[in-house]
Fold each of these.
Amino acid sequence: MAVPHLARCLLLSGILGSLAGSASALVPYALNRTTGIRAAHVWLLWLLPPVL
């Protein structure tokens, strides 16, 4: 009875670890991409709402 429970826990932890790793790898990619777009199109800054 303990083996199926252990297998299920290992499977779920593997899936969650893969999702968390993918999300943490996506953040620097998105940051680099948006920085490149902002550098190429400076006029986009004027579309941002002013902060009071």
Amino acid sequence: MAEFQWFKEDTRLATGLDGMRIENKGHISTLTFFNVSEKDYGNYTCVATNKLGITNASITLYEGQGFVSEDEYLEISDIKRDQSGEYECSALDDVAAPDVRKVKITVNYPPYISKAKNTGVSVGQKGILSCEASAVPMAEFQWFKEDTRYLESRNGACLKQS
């Protein structure tokens, strides 16, 4: 079993110091700070000793860094429509289960008419013209005959959206 000692610069730290805790469990030693302040900044060294020898590891705690991870981001260059959807960000370490958050990205794109069908119909019968488009946000449809826009029902023609 290993024995651990923690040092700040060249001064040995004792268990139960104000604002920090040293916890030794088996082959792991943890130095935990509570409410980190400027007086805590500096070089820390953990020295581990057992019957096979001695080893140490050091870390520097300084303003703006501490033990906090940097931000992480996913950049999607030249994004395409099919890349819309839900993505997961997972932050993990060896202390606990990962923290997972879902984020949604919606790719906006202009209307694209995917289906427009010509129709032949006999006089007196019902003629239906249809047009399908995909867009985000959803497209608004407008119908024109020659240069005149159909706004509402006119001469037996009725606009309907499915």
Amino acid sequence: MSEDAPETGPGDPERDRAARLLQDHFAQGRLGGGEFSSRLERVYKAASLRDLEAAVADLPSSPAPPEPADRPAPPVPGGPGMLRDPALLIPWGLWLGVNTLCFTIWLILFLTGQGDGYPWFLWVLGPWGIVMVFITLGLAAVHRGGGGAARG
């Protein structure tokens, strides 16, 4: 190729790389909204590689990695945090609500003389409650780290 050959336009990978670089710098706070928009417009309107490079020339080639966020301390195994776990609160709340409704219906029927007094609500309360107790104990074991896996 000769020195006088016309410069070719940038391809999509080059434009995408430059746009990604601008996005990274914008996310890091090094570019304002207006400057980001105008540079991004220049990147996508660039007719040559030189125009494309001019849009990102004064930026470092790779932005600094984001600083790690402070992670909250893990909950104490078996502590009160397990009792607030949605995996337990939601099913126990449903169990309580459904059984309260069943008992209320039974009580209304019993007090008005419409029912025969048989405590049928126990057939909902009992088996479901037993299953919930086993689920709670299993989750407690997992929270304590005794998930049943062999330790080596």
Amino acid sequence: MKGVVPPRPPRSGYAPRRPPATGAALWTNLRPTVRHGRVKQPARILVVGGGYVGMNAALRLRRALGDDARVTVVSCDPYMTYQPFLAETAAGSIAPAHVVVPLRRVLAGCTVIVGDVLRIEHARRTAIAATPASRQEGGTGEIELPYDEVVVACGSVSRTLPVPGLAETGIGFKTVEEAIGLRNHVLTQLDIASSTRDVEIRDAALTFVVVGGGFAGVGALGELEDMSRYATRHFHNVTAGDLRWVLVEAADRILPEVGAEVADRTLRELRRRNIDVRLSTRLESCEHSVARLSDGSRLPTRTVVWTAGVKPHPLVAACDLPRTGDGALRCDATLRLEGTAHAWAAGDAAAVPDLTAAEPGTLCAPSAQHAVRQARVLADNVVATLRGEPLTDYRHAHVGSVAPLGLHKGVASLYGRRLTGYPAWLMHRAFHLSQVPTLNRKSRVVADWLLAALVKREIVALGSLETPRAEFELAAGSDRRPDA
């Protein structure tokens, strides 16, 4: 009949599309089969975690497989945080919203679920999760997510020790929320010191203790010390000389990620800035606004920043997947779980053999540099598995590390070059700008830097961000009139 277009026959190797489903029924009865090197039915790929590995792996899988797979990402946050810029965020050089990448915008075509994966039952090919909606729907608050391939990229959490008072008073430095909170906290301490004549309160407010001498701790210390020194210009009775910053490191040197020469130069720079660096020293307690150190020192302080390493996410222990003695997921060089089909892992939660190391048995260090590159190899290997192709081993030589120590100050050991001071600071910014995902975020970070070069630093503490309803609750619980 004229004007009637006959239906288009399905392309060879593809199954007809099914109507969209919701919830756990999203992947019901969908099993991947391979025929002539093509995936016949959509494979259900579950990515646990939306960090470096999760976001990059999901993006690469989506681009490689298209409609041949349904990629779902479960993340506790709807964004990925670019952690190397947290120190500059805490110092106010970069806006907090510009160091996070929205997952739903980047992962177009993927299903993004904001929630927590509680456990993985790989024997049933099912992950048990909880979302804000499921917790309000009654029952157990749990939902089941069946899968055909699972990528465990849940990352790490701060590795804490049983130090009295640490859980109650310590501040971590792994998330953008912690960076914002730490900045507000430091500026609030300057306000407290400026408004009291009590010597004990003042000393505790102006003493800041950072535990951990790696890149995270040294970078946070350097940026915050520089920011607080600048902020004292605007407090009438607090000077830069009143500030006391203390770095506590259990090892006999700082910055184990770089050579001894660069570490020594950095140590001299910190001490030149009157930063008290305690090597071979441990924090024994931090109760009642007093930090007790293993060398016998007692430091009155209201600020303890904990950056003493990381450990695999607690989810790893709730999975029926092979683990190492340290609690990490045991992977082979292809990033597949050892002796386990259809399960993959990378990043901080995975123990991945370093094939470029001279000593056999060496594992890849938990760093963003490895995580991003592992995500690419992992995604390619998942695609190769679905298509019946050979897998590729992960092999990458660590190119080095860079970290800021304040405005125009830094330390770098990159591509065999060891720098400190202004050149290292420039290298830090150039290298990490090239690694920030999406042109949108690169542009916003550059705009922040240009603006910071033209105008003075902001020194406002927005402490109310942590308790946004406090003012309303006070008003609702009182008899005062709104216009009073």
